Protein 1
Amino acid sequence: MKRKADVVIIGGGVNGVATAYALAKAGLDVVVLEKNYLSSGATGKCGAGIRQQWSTAENTELAIRSVQMFEHLSSDLGMDIEFRQGGYLIINHSEKELRQSEENVEMQKRLGLNVRLLDISEILSIVPVLDLKGIKAVGATFCPTDGHANPFLTTFAYANAARKHGATISTHTTVTGIKTKDQHVTSVKTSKGTIHTSWVVDAAGVYSKDIAKMVGIKTPNKPYRKEVLATERLQSMFEAMVISFTDGIYFSQQQEGQIVGGIPIPHEQIGLYKTPTFSFLRHMSQTLTRYVPLLRHVNMLRHWTGFYDVTPDARPILGEDRTVKGFIHCHGFSGHGFMLSPMVSKLLTEYIAYEKTSPILDRLNLDRFEGSNLTQEHSVVG
Amino acid sequence: MEVNGIPNVRTCIAPLLEGVAVRMQDRLASWPQNNTDNAFVSTVQDIDILIVGAGPAGMEAALQAATFGASVLLVDENQRVGGQLIKQTHKFFGSKEEKAGTRGISIAKDLEDQLCDDRFKDKIDVLLDATVFGFYEDDTEDRYTFGVISRKEYKSRLIKVVCRSVIFTVGAMENMLLFPGNDLPGVYGAGAVQTLMNVYGVKPGERVLMVGAGNVGLIVGYQLLQAGIKVDRVVEAAPTIGGYHVHAAKLRRCSVPIYTRHSIKEVFGADCVKGAVVVELDDHWNPIQGSEEIVTCDTVCLAVGLTPSTRLLEQIGVDMALVPEAGGYIALHDERMQTSVPRVYVAGDSSGIEEASTAMIEGKIAGAMAAKQLGYQQEKAQTAYEGFLKELKRLRAGPFGAKPRDAKQRIQRLWRKRP
Ligand SMILES: Cc1cc2nc3c(=O)[nH]c(=O)nc-3n(C[C@H](O)[C@H](O)[C@H](O)COP(=O)(O)OP(=O)(O)OC[C@H]3O[C@@H](n4cnc5c(N)ncnc54)[C@H](O)[C@@H]3O)c2cc1C
Ligand SMILES: Cc1cc2nc3c(=O)[nH]c(=O)nc-3n(C[C@H](O)[C@H](O)[C@H](O)COP(=O)(O)OP(=O)(O)OC[C@H]3O[C@@H](n4cnc5c(N)ncnc54)[C@H](O)[C@@H]3O)c2cc1C
């Protein structure tokens, strides 16, 4: 176990290892501490969809620039992460939703995104199996460069590349405390000893709250159980991820043929509950077969749970804490932290290694919750 | 295979109905055509005890629980009750009280008749061709929820089952061996060979290499001979034959050689088994170079042990431990067969590999104690339980019971040591 490092990253999910890779590449001495194994948190449970169609400019911009990085990530990292761009199809069910879509598309286009409104007749050319009447579709938006990657391979690829650049990754190592002096981070206590450092990145996912508490910081994040279902494999029929903000559903057909998707659990309460619920299973299978009636006789193969780490405005908390120096927030991804990881790691690295700040980091700082004007991200599913 | 437009049907175990359209599907199924019916989720509420698996342990558990007045749902993934017993055409070995001399299939029939007895009409429901696949959260403190898939006319139905107590009598899974060619058609587990011959009346092949000389390998080897199939030899990695002497003697009398300290190295053939290479092992179970021998055969039957099925128990989160004598990871349990989670019971091979005779008594114990725990005829159930315990002890007392006796003693010790 190392005793000293430039930066200690807590959490071996995609954001922790992506940041480790970028920092190590910039020449810093980095240690990642993961209490279980790599991708054992939300990363290994996620849908791994990559979407740029958001309602707030920050998320849209982070996602657009992340996709640009995803496009050559496999070759950068020297390992195939199965990145595929089948597009995201967002179904609108009402006039009100259509108007919100028009507004979003305008903002997204301004940021340079290739996205457009589809009328009813065009939807079936993208996903032919949808029952448009059954789901009362009135329109949709489509962005062809949205897509998907394999979350395990992405994590392992980042981790391997980080190690090549000299980073140390210690799995099965739990962080138990953080020491500060004069409001500066000085060391991290773990189940395997203490490491001296002046930078700590809190990328502990749903447990980031507990890490922040170790230095006396209160974060507003709340854990929500989320479930995903995967069917048996079928011949390839469509490539797009289908989502609906009205129903909260998302699903796509993976390259291997299975349909994978999720939906919010009816009457779900906040908390770290891990057991799968029958109400999800019922609700998901009923809604999914309303969207695609042909799936009625297709079996489910697997079903699992994970956690969203949700903030009050459904946007991540990023950047250095205003009171505890050297403490970097990297959490609160509210269900979309996989797709943002390339840019998140880039921005945090620029800040730590080159002292470069950015408007996005400023606007996504924890201190935004002290004000009363929060910009809410509305385009959330699952 | 695709049946009536429904993809991915396992036609090897699905019933053949009049007028069905069966089609070979590509590696990936085409999308189903039929989408007319809708009602595919239902709920079964207010059962006292869910029993998962209708082998000898599950059937006895159901009969006991119902005798004391509990309502029971007995679920099995096969089309008939009986578990392993329906494959067993040989006469059982062991004590008279526990049906020695009777064939397994007859024991199953007898238990099935009892389940159908009028006395239990309102107490026992049997759901066949249905799989209990998952444990789900329930809002009610003293209830457990399970997801069940029930198949009817090749279509799956989702059922939510809510119960007060659950007994796992799910049996065991066969062990596999790793060697080149083990995925060629013609390499079978002993269970599949038994099912083909004894349940479906289909010959698995013409010339068989049997791997494993435990009771299962020996009995299935003899049944193959009875079906007119040539058994080239039996190879066994251990230095001694694991099964009972009577079963080994039957094979030897028919001049089937049993090679101890021998194992299988590989199987060859382009698209099905054409033969196998066997090899002698040294004192450390390593292959001896140069001892390879080619066996010409079209079938390799693996009878290399069983591992208790515990996945649902693990999902519930009961305390587990590795007990090699019992066949692998098992759910720790007390003498009443209750696990570390209240009202969750285990019995039969699922609680440690043993025999049908002991599986039946364990099933009785679990059934009686689960009913008692729910408040049914507590005194009578207790008296019955004490009787069953004595029977179990007697069954395990002989020299043949040494291994399971050790296993169960170890489980008891681990149970008491839990934090
Ligand atoms: C069902 C589901 C579907 C999702 N779908 C998508 C999607 O389609 N697209 C998308 O972009 N995002 C999606 N997400 C969200 C995404 O998974 C997360 O935002 C992202 O994976 C977060 O990564 P992370 O590295 O920040 O955190 P995590 O992957 O949660 O990693 C945190 C790690 O920290 C470790 N840790 C915690 N405490 C300690 C400690 N004290 N010491 C050491 N280590 C510790 C944990 O073990 C864990 O491995 C989904 C999430 C879920 C649950
Ligand atoms: C070749 C051979 C010879 C044998 N000879 C003898 C002998 O002579 N004497 C003797 O006493 N014993 C003998 N046995 C052992 C005996 O067959 C087993 O010990 C006994 O059948 C175990 O009973 P069980 O009820 O625990 O499990 P099983 O009989 O295996 O029954 C379990 C049942 O549960 C079902 N099931 C499992 N999971 C699920 C699920 N999730 N949902 C729904 N259903 C499920 C299975 O399909 C199965 O039908 C022999 C075994 C073999 C293989």
Protein 2
Amino acid sequence: MSERIIAGAPVNVNEEGFMTDFRQWNQTIGTELAREADLTLSPRHWQVIEYLQTEYRNEVPLSIRKIGKSGVVDIKEFYQLFPNAPLKTAAKIAGIPKPASCI
Amino acid sequence: MKRLLILGAGTAGTMMANHLHHHLSADEWEIDIIDEETEHYYQPGFLFLPFDIYEPEDIVKPIRQFIPAGVNLIQESIDRIVPAEQYVLMQGGDRLRYDILIVATGAKIAPEEVPGMLGEEWKNSIFDFYTFEGALALRNKLREWEGGKLVVHITEMPIKCPVAPLEFAFLADSFFKNKHMRDRVDITFVTPLSGAFTKPKATAALEHLLEEKHIHIESDFAIEQVDAENKTIIDYGGRTVPFDLLVTVPTNKGDAVIERSGMGDDLNFVPTNKATLQSKDWPNIFVLGDATNIAASKAGSVAHFEAEILTENILRFMDGQPLKEEFDGHANCFVETGNGKALLIDFNYTHEPVEGTFPFPGVGPLRLLKESRINHMGKLAFRWIYWNMLLKGTHIPFVSATMQEAGKDFD
Ligand SMILES: Cc1cc2nc3c(=O)[nH]c(=O)nc-3n(C[C@H](O)[C@H](O)[C@H](O)COP(=O)(O)OP(=O)(O)OC[C@H]3O[C@@H](n4cnc5c(N)ncnc54)[C@H](O)[C@@H]3O)c2cc1C
């Protein structure tokens, strides 16, 4: 675990760059994390990020399948918004832990 | 007379029948166990069957052989559980009332979840090895396959025995080497995870092995469909992986009885308290083995540790005492790495697999997270232990239900 400065604020992150304290997150940090992933956030991106954060607050484990059934976004669009590894990328920008897809 | 009903006579249900039979007075409690099958399969053997290492008769025995006298075995399909009225409806229409219910109906593959997976190519160039029929059909295919692109694939998590697909890839590497045709086979391991495994230290060790064996890995691959005609799998991002032979682990789901009973999550797994193994919705229902939604491995070793803890909790529940919050997610798995070697991982909810010695700290004889022949002997011995000790609920000497921290090299 280490501390880094994102958008002017000190933020705790783990070795993979995921934030470890959601309370430190704000939209400016989200925008900056998105820029590091070469993404510019549109209103659709924000809707998905807000959904992920709500699920996180409700302690619902996240999976690609659940997101596909959420009614917020289908899996195809989720991939268009956050290419390659969408769940990981979106979680990182949202300031929540990397979804642990069970063991 | 009160009735304790166990649904499923697989690994977990059979162990519970043996444990509880031993503790409960026959004057007070009737114990019934229900299963629609007549055969008990040693599922870890499905990994070895395709490579002609085990024969079918090594891994199939009658269910009845493992149910103690005094426990009533009912061989019929369960239609649904009606928890609000405390009865189970059988397919034939019988209603079985219960005082305490144990759900141990396991998990099954659901290849229909992925478009294009089931069809003309199923059991032709697309196989699973998570069922007896699948593993056997694959054995017959591998006996005559002349080589090409072999793709070993995981559809989505969670799956039973999450290391089994990797083991399959490792065993395939040595199988083709022994047949002197490794140069004609290209092996690719395709996973929805970001690496070979979920935990960093084990991932590093396993990825090193993949590299050594020239097995390519495609990670973060969330399959959208199988294009059977063009023999490719396609992910949601449009990435494609071509195959000549696809060995896939389809989506794993809890049995449809859970869905019919309205008791499961979106994959039919039953919401369960991860420390006590009591159902989150119904106090007199307990769940163990692959049927739960807890974030522990879906493995026989896990079911074994759960059964020891759940037995105590059910006895406490009968006495009106508070349940012990004891289950820590302990899992202990041998990972076959091919060429007569294996490695061993031992971990729980909070501690990832690391290097060390097992079961005696500092001594072994088994080494954690390192390949060795003795670990491979351990994996093969597991079959004997399964049939002769595990199912009967015999405690395995020196191996505790909760994970031991001594002997492990945490940083
Ligand atoms: C390929 C493979 C390799 C594996 N390797 C290992 C390993 O190396 N080590 C390890 O520890 N574990 C391993 N496992 C996992 C292990 O086999 C399972 O975790 C274990 O069997 C789970 O036990 P269970 O009792 O929960 O489910 P099961 O043993 O599957 O039992 C469920 C039972 O419920 C019955 N049932 C379900 N629904 C109904 C219904 N509606 N009506 C009537 N009966 C019903 C079924 O017929 C079945 O007998 C492996 C699994 C696979 C597939």
Protein 3
Amino acid sequence: MSGANDPYDPKQVAALSPDALAAGVAAARAAFDQATNLDDLHAAQSAHLGDRSPLALANREIAALPPAAKADAGKRINAARSEVRQVYAERLALLQTERDARVLVEESVDVTLPWDRRLEGARHPLTTTQELVGDVFTAMGWEVAEGPEIEAEWFNFDALNIGVDHPARSLMDTFFVQGPDGSADSGLVLRTHTSPVQARVMLTRTPPIYIVCPGKVFRTDELDATHSPVFHQLEGLVVDKGITMAHLKGTLDHMAEAFFGPGIITRLRPSYFPFTEPSAEPDLLCFVCRGESVGNPDRPCRTCGSEGWIEWGGCGMVNPRVLRACGIDPEVYSGFAFGMGIERTMMFRNNAADMRDIVEGDVRFTAAFGMEA
Amino acid sequence: MRASVSWIAEHVDLPPELTPRELGEALVRVGLEVERVESAADGISGPLVVGRVLSFVDEPQKNGKVIRWCSVDVGEDDPRGIVCGAHNFAEGDLIVAVLPGATLPGGFAISARKTYGHVSDGMICSARELGIGEDHAGILVLEADSAKPGDDALDVLGLREAVLDIAVTPDRGYCLSVRGLAREAGAALDVAFHDFVMALPAVDQSAYPVTVADPIGCDQFSARAVTGLDPTAPTPPSIASRLHAAGMRSISLPVDVTNYVMLETGQPLHAFDRARLNGAIGVRRASAGEKLITLDGVIRVLDPDDLVVTDDSGPIALAGVMGGASTEISDETTDIVLEAAHWHPASISRAVRRHKLPSEAAKRFERGVDPRIAGVALQRCVDLLVEHGGASAAPGYTVIGDGPARVSISLPANRAAELAGLPIDATTVRARLEQVGCVVTTSTADKSTSDGSTVDGSTGIGAATETTEATETTEATETRDTGGLFTVTPPTWRPDLTDPADLVEEVVRLVGYDQIPSILPSAPAGNGWTPQQRLRRSASRSLAEAGYAEVINYPFLAPAVHDAFGLPAADERRRAIRLANPISEAEPEMRTSLLPGLLANLVRNVGRGSRDLAIFEMGLVYLPAETTTPPPRVGVEHRPSDAELAAIERTVPRQPRHVATATAGEFDRAGWWGQGRLSGWADAVEAARTIARAAGVELEVRKGDVPPWHPGRCAELLLDGAVVGVAGELNPRVIAALDLPARTSAMELNFDAFSPPPPAQAPILSNFPPVLLDLALVVPEEVPAAAVLAAVRTGAGELLESVRLFDVYSDPARLGPGLRSLAFALKFRAMDRTLTVDEATAARDAAVAEAAARFGAMLRA
Ligand SMILES: [Zn+2]
């Protein structure tokens, strides 16, 4: 070791010689290059950039140099250390990138594995179809009216111009509630249609009335592929000034398109219902063949039986007698009403083939519909 | 109503090129429901020909039968040999032979076959084999010279002829006749209709003595008589085949003739054996307890409301519904009294329902019969019995009563246009009304408003008045331009036309519904779904999203399920409404809870192979009304009073909406990620909380003991202090009794107890850092976790931002018997500063102190 007062000759301080510094840089570069992983690189970094590394030790020698030589030596050693740091940083970046890539490979999984931990719920298509009805009509400013399912005969029949001895009353296949004496004369029935809701609304509100009534109804039919003793209907009622059959037709056409797509319209056939006069049955343009199967034996249509049209319910202008019974002046107001089976509509719209599937409550049926029908 | 096209064509000029299908389509356009266009030949194919029996040999067989070996000329070079089992024919008779290669109705294929020692080269047919009659005692023998051998028998028998099958709506009684159908066809096709025109004898009341004691029930009773009928005279094939096409059996000439004329004219007729009548015919209501044996052999106990035809012996027919056995036509009847009456429709309707005895006659009387057609119908019967039965028309024509009064209707000429939304001018209105048989006159009354004469407003448009008073018909008070006013007298065969709206329908249907334009009406602004309806949707969506599948069950209830549920005798759920005519005697009641249906559904789904199940239903249950006294009879001529409506309302059962869930099997499934988790009581309670969250409220949960739930695993759910539902695991006994999967859990809530949430309040958030501390409290096992949680909340005070129970631990060895440890994670935070650990610790200690004070809780070391 040189003494403090010795004449200065940088060349005499071996560690600070340019050759020694170059060798130190080369050794560091070699060590970094040899490190193939971050741990090795870390060790090499300690060896060549740490406190005990040759360059760090050389740096300490500067203090022993005469002031005139310090600047020059400092410059050289800084350059050397900077070069080593640079090499290290490059190597570090490279190895980190390699490691990151390897980790991503190692952590890869089979993303096709199922994750069906939770049961999948679903809503019944009869519910969502009724909601769809409500959505279509509330969008036009109508309201959704509801009423009791066990209903007074007066609302279910009398108010609707179906008197006690009217033939239609026995055609309705009605469930009667047993009275306290065991007879069927309780004055109560399971409603045979949702029309009593219309009567209730007309009795409690003044026109204009624009309502749609979806709900559960009952007839004494045995369950088979197309019948059920419990089923659902949607009915609509409008009472306002100047309402005509053209408005009825327009509403039915709008609903048909909303349910079955653009261009699916309706046609009216004369029919009979006690609560409407004139009465009609709406037919739906076959949404499968759009009427093209008619007279075209090469392209028969199972959906409409190659008739081109499908029966869809009943409708008509509200019978003035019904308006009168419900306290509405038929000389001032007119109205129309229509009704369809929800199940039948659903069978068309969702291609459900068998009534039994709809009503039996098999979860596999519901599950197929998810949240919307 | 089924009718052959040729029969209809006898009364209307059908265009010659019109096909039966086109006729059907035309009738559909004017409102008839044509269900099918078919023909009796539909089931027949291959050679079916007329043959002449040239000769035969009777050959006795070992089995005692005698067969005929016939030589039959079927128009070929050589006669054919055919074996026949019948003997009702002679040499030279014309018969119908079906030859090998043909197929008869029912898919019965014919081939040459060896039988009774001969090769039978075909078969001689009976009416039954051809599907045109019931008679199979012998073969069908054609009238001599009606055809020649080799003729196509389908043509000769008229079997190719098309038959329309029409469903007639209750307002169109007149279409239950060929006459009515022909008239409709005429109107639909704009071709001429030909009504019956025949000379009738003068009414002299001498055909048979008749007295009518109930002119309301029977406003017209007409009678004719014939004598000297040959009781053995057969029904001619022309009549039999039309009856058959109409779906009626051929019985005997007199019965067939009355049926034939009923189908033709729409007037039901009844034939009495004159020899079996005792004294004058009468008409009255029955006395209570009176009895009548009807034609079907059933003893009917009569009701005082029943209309009956009587003679001195008592009731001899249930009027308009069915004749009696005592005066029935037999195979010895030679003298006949024919009845053609006009009965009160509602009385007939009630009798049909009372005796559960629908009949072709009643179907017509209920819907209204033309009171002016009786004379024609009787004349037709007499003529046919004379022509085909060798009878003589007895002198005399009895008609008691005038039939119903005719009414006229005032119809503003523009009413049809107004209601249809279609320009229909007054000329068209008049023409179309006349086409259906109305008499239309223009009332001059509508000018009265302008010429200043007094207008009497007591009768509005639509008032019905007697035609005899037609000149007094009060004019409408309308000041709007009605385009004139028609006075319309509907034809006698249209009792359904009573109101202006009925006339409008006649006009519009004949103009064509297809002319009506399509215009969407614009409603005033509405409020959309009601808040309650929206809540229903979001609650049911929440359940579906939580894993529940919605089901909709029949609301019918078997009371036995309540025994299986272990309900006490006084349980409210046993007070179910009962049906008088249930679909199944096993399920005569209406549900008071959704659970019976939901659990049955669970069993059904398990039976179909589903194992992990979570289902829900939302629907009405039916609870007793305020009163079971039937409501007062309320009319429909005007709006009932509020008191009357309230009286009706009191009889209507309460019908709250419930929501219920049921689960079985795994709720969280096992899989590659690890273990699954069986559903249980906690899922049931959580389902209830899910509903409550949708409504923006919190349910209070407390231990309950309600069947059919497990008494140790049953939670009562409270809202504002009132029990609104129950949730938990079902009682194992119930599970066993109903064959449910083990540990089936369920929940039921009264959904009506929830109201739509008010607008939610936004929270104020602190952004200072929280202090998180855990806390384990040892408490007696019977202390509910909810109570401990409440104590912790109260004790910790307002620095507590949230608390969550994260562990429950029981270990008698370490905690001591009867104790358990509940561990909570507490998050403290202040609104205005960074909370120190000391502050938070002090708050936690306060929580411990509160729990200690309430339950003796100890901090777990
Ligand atoms: Zn089609």
Protein 4
Amino acid sequence: MQHVDGNAIAGPLAEFFAFDITTAVARCNGCGFVAELARAMVYTSPAGSVLRCASCEQVLATLVESDDRAWFGFSGVSAIEVRRR
Amino acid sequence: MSFITRGFSGRSHERDERLPPGQTLVHDFPVLSAGPTPEIDTAEWEFSITTETGGVHSWNWQQFMALPIDEVDTDIHCVTHWSKLGTSWRGISLDTLFENVETQYDYVMAHSYGGYTTNLALDDLLDGKAWIAFEFDGEPLDPEHGGPARLLVPHLYFWKSAKWVRGLVMMGEDEPGFWEQNGYHLHGDPWKEERYW
Amino acid sequence: MSDASTATATTATSEPARALAAVPRAGWHVATVAATRRETANAARLELEVDGWPGNAAGQHLDLRLTAPDGYTATRSYSIASSGSGTRVVLAVDRLPDGEVSPFLVNEVRVGDRLEVHGPLGAFFVWRPVDHGALRSAGDGAGGAASALRARPVQLIAGGSGIVPLFAMATAHAEARDLTPFRMLYSVRTPDDLFFAEELMALAATSDDFRLDLVYTRRTPDGWPNPAGRVTREALEGAVLPATERPIVYVCGSTGFVERVASWLIELGHDARDIRTERFGGI
Ligand SMILES: Cc1cc2nc3c(=O)[nH]c(=O)nc-3n(C[C@H](O)[C@H](O)[C@H](O)COP(=O)(O)OP(=O)(O)OC[C@H]3O[C@@H](n4cnc5c(N)ncnc54)[C@H](O)[C@@H]3O)c2cc1C
Ligand SMILES: [Zn+2]
């Protein structure tokens, strides 16, 4: 299966954050592209989901889930902008 | 809250004593991957081992294919609870590739085309335990399955068997690779269920 | 192939910030199947009564988790064909021949069955009716600018089961008597593969603000003006609102379909920021 949109992992992420973080805007460390996480590309590998920059394909974030824990890594994002209103 | 869904069994999940704990049997070969599939022409392909002195041992495809080839029949175990038994591969043993490599270091970072990394102990790669495989089931390895060549370390969970491998870099200490930084176990022995941190 | 947005400038922040305003909080719920029906020979419509469902915006999805007796679970995402504040949720599922979950949902699920769902999810791929009163009174200033953006026309582009969230948008548009011009391009294999066929025809027949264009990829109805075939760039150009009208474009379907359409939209001059995509997977 090919990639889907960042939007598609709103479910697992809703278990971490009190709001829908896929609507938050993030800046790619690799190329500086700024966009909602929902616009990133999601690759689902057996090990976990990888969010990649829609512009340069660099890894923005990773999501790993076990039965009782989950890990969210933001290794490729320089900052996340969250709207207050 | 979880409850059993009436009538749902999922894809058949057989048990077998050759399976490590928590694993079930599959017959197909899931091909999901963490990024776009790199298309690497064997004309451009290169594999290298880099040591602490900066020494580089490298092979192009022709040189690589001139090395002695092993036939490997083995079971593979994915951390997402599936195992596939009796898979057959052809590849070059890491023992062959390390024959002339001088190193005092005990750990290795495997690097792949496409940027993926995974860490391994040198002990897990030597003594007939690991290969750079280029054939699966009698066919050249598909790009989707890691072709032209992937690492094959069947006694560890399959995420350690890096697809599209391009080189190994010796490390003095064990450092986490891509998935190991993001939740996965540094070692990954399926018989000990070393899945996560 | 990479995402459509590659082709454009380095920033793509959201257009109307208010379109992303808070949606009901996601949570796990128990859904009871209230009705099922064949949608097509290959697909089913499931109507769920979801205990505690907080309502959802048009375009959102949910995650559905199935659990086998041995504890094995499978989770898949499904778009919601309905919207609003009620606890009824409508799904439409296409059966993939060797799929694990979709054949179960299409062939096995019966009225009274209970399913676990997590949602509503995804506040990005949503459409909300325009508050025209607010739009008129807002005048200038930031609020006015945002409302003006929201009054832009909407182009919906669906491939196969990708119609589901777009059908929710079209229905919400009609129910709100929203005056935003809507145009929908829907690509399906044959006339027998149309989801929500009656409802869509009714919408197209009764609303001046909704226009439906169909593309058949394998077989057309008798007397259809165009031969069967995939959506081409030319067909797209002919059937979608032109970039000069600055429509907000929602594209949904298999990953391959969405990729093709989105890259053509960019070539046709649409701004990547105005295109919202929902890829269902597959090739
Ligand atoms: C946000 C979102 C919303 C979705 N909404 C809907 C919806 O409203 N209706 C609907 O029917 N589906 C929808 N899908 C797709 C759905 O989640 C499943 O992927 C689909 O039902 C297949 O699941 P499965 O278990 O039957 O197939 P699997 O067992 O997962 O896969 C079987 C085979 O089909 C391939 N495949 C997987 N997905 C697709 C696909 N979409 N198209 C073609 N081939 C595929 C796989 O690569 C595999 O070879 C949505 C997906 C996402 C991400
Ligand atoms: Zn980038």
